[in-house]
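Query structure, 378 C-alpha cells:
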C-alpha cells in the first residue's frame, strides 16, 4: 500500500502523521510513503530527512492523492476541495469526530472511501500503543498548566523570602482522565496546591497518588460509562456538583477543565455566575473548547477577559508542542497501520475489534452506529 502524507491546511496545525523513524518502520513493513513538499516543517522535519528515510517527496498535491491508497492526516479534510482530492475507494486516517462532522462523513462515504478515525480506536490493552487520543491529551494537560501559569500574575510554588512568605498558587483540575492527571502532576511539580474533581470516584486513588486533593460529590451516581469514560450524570448529582464546584472555583487561581463525553458536546460545568465569583487575576484553561467548552463563556480558539478572569479557549494545544506531539503521534499511527494492514496489504479484517471500531464508513456504508443514529436526525 502507498501511504500519502499531505500538508495540513489548518493554519495552526504544526504536527504531521509520520517522522523519518516511522517512515523507515513502515517501509520495512512493505508500505511505500509519499510526503508532500514541506509537510514536516511545522515539526522541524526537513524534506531531506524524509528522503533519507526512504520516503518520496511529492510537490503536486493532486499527484500525491492520486498515487496514495491511504491518506494519513492529523486533521480531517478541512474543505470540500480536500475531499474532492480523495481518490474513490481509497482510505483516510485522521482525528475525525464523525458524529460532529456529519456532512463531511457523508461526502467521504459517497466516494466509497474507508474512513478511519483516531478518535474511535478502542481503549483496550492491545490498542494501547495506538491510542493517539491519549498521547495528545497527555501533552495538552502538561501544556495547559504552563499556559495557566503565564496567564496569572503569581508564582506557582510557596516561596519563603526576606520580604515575607508568598503563598502557592491554587490549581483546580476538573476531569481526571489522561489530560487531567498530567495537569495535576505538572502543577504539583511546579509547587502549586492542587485539587481535582471527577464524576468517577474510581480515579480518587490516582489523583491522591499525585499529591492532589480529590473533591468528591456524595452520591450513588458513579458517573462511570462504557470504556471507563465519564457518562451523563443525574440532575440531582449535577446540582450537588455545581454547588461544590462553585465553592472551590472561588478560591482557585488556575482552573483547568478537561471533561468530555465521546460523541457529544462538552458538558457545561462552569456557569457565568461561577466565573463572576472567581478571584480577579485568575484563569480558566478550557481543554474541552473543541467541543464547545466546559465553561459557558468559553470562545473556541480565543483568549478572553471576563471581569478580570482570563478564559483561554485554545483548542489545538498539542500542536504548540509539535516536536514531541508528532513523535508520539507518529508511533501511534505506525502501530495502527501495521496492525490494520499487515504486510502492507489492503485486506481488512472486519472481525478485528480495532479495525471495526475505528472505521466510521466502509464500502459506501456508515459503519459507526452513533454516527448512523445522528444522521437519521439530519
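Result returned for the query:
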Amino acid at each position: 500500500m502507498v501511504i500519502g502524507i499531505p500538508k495540513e491546511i489548518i493554519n495552526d496545525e504544526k504536527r504531521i502523521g509520520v517522522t523519518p523513524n516511522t517512515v523507515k518502520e513502515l517501509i520495512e513493513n512493505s508500505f511505500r510513503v509519499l510526503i508532500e513538499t514541506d509537510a514536516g516543517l511545522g515539526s522541524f522535519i526537513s524534506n531531506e530527512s524524509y528522503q533519507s528515510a526512504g520516503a518520496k517527496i511529492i510537490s503536486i498535491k493532486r499527484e500525491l492523492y492520486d498515487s496514495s491508497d491511504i491518506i494519513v492526516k492529523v486533521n480531517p479534510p478541512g474543505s470540500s476541495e480536500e475531499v474532492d482530492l480523495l481518490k474513490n475507494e481509497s482510505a483516510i486516517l485522521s482525528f475525525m469526530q464523525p458524529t460532529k462532522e456529519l456532512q463531511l462523513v457523508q461526502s467521504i462515504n459517497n466516494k466509497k472511501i474507508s474512513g478511519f478515525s483516531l478518535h474511535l480506536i478502542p481503549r483496550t490493552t492491545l490498542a494501547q500503543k495506538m491510542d493517539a487520543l491519549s498521547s495528545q491529551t497527555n501533552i495538552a494537560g502538561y501544556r495547559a498548566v504552563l499556559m495557566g501559569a503565564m496567564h496569572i500574575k503569581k508564582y506557582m510554588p510557596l516561596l519563603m523570602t526576606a520580604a515575607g512568605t508568598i503563598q502557592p498558587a491554587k490549581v483546580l483540575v476538573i476531569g481526571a482522565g489522561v489530560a487531567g492527571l498530567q495537569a495535576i502532576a505538572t502543577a504539583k511539580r511546579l509547587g502549586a496546591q492542587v485539587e481535582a474533581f471527577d464524576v468517577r470516584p474510581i480515579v480518587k486513588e490516582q489523583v491522591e497518588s499525585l499529591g492532589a486533593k480529590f473533591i468528591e460529590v456524595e452520591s450513588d451516581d458513579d458517573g462511570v460509562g462504557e470504556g471507563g469514560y465519564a457518562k451523563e450524570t443525574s440532575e440531582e448529582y449535577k446540582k450537588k456538583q455545581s454547588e461544590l464546584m462553585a465553592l472551590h472555583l472561588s478560591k482557585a487561581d488556575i482552573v483547568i477543565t478537561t471533561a468530555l463525553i465521546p460523541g457529544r458536546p462538552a458538558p457545561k460545568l462552569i456557569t457565568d455566575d461561577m466565573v463572576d465569583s472567581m478571584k480577579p487575576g485568575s484563569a480558566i484553561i478550557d481543554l474541552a473548547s473543541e467541543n464547545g467548552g466546559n465553561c459557558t463563556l468559553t470562545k473556541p480558539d480565543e483568549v478572553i477577559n471576563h471581569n478580570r478572569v482570563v478564559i483561554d479557549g485554545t483548542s489545538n494545544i498539542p500542536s504548540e508542542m509539535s516536536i514531541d506531539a508528532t513523535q508520539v503521534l507518529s508511533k501511534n499511527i505506525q502501530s495502527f497501520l501495521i496492525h490494520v494492514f499487515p504486510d502492507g496489504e489492503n485486506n481488512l479484517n472486519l472481525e478485528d475489534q480495532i479495525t471495526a471500531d475505528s472505521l466510521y464508513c466502509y464500502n459506501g456504508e456508515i459503519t459507526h452506529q452513533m454516527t448512523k443514529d445522528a444522521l437519521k436526525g439530519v
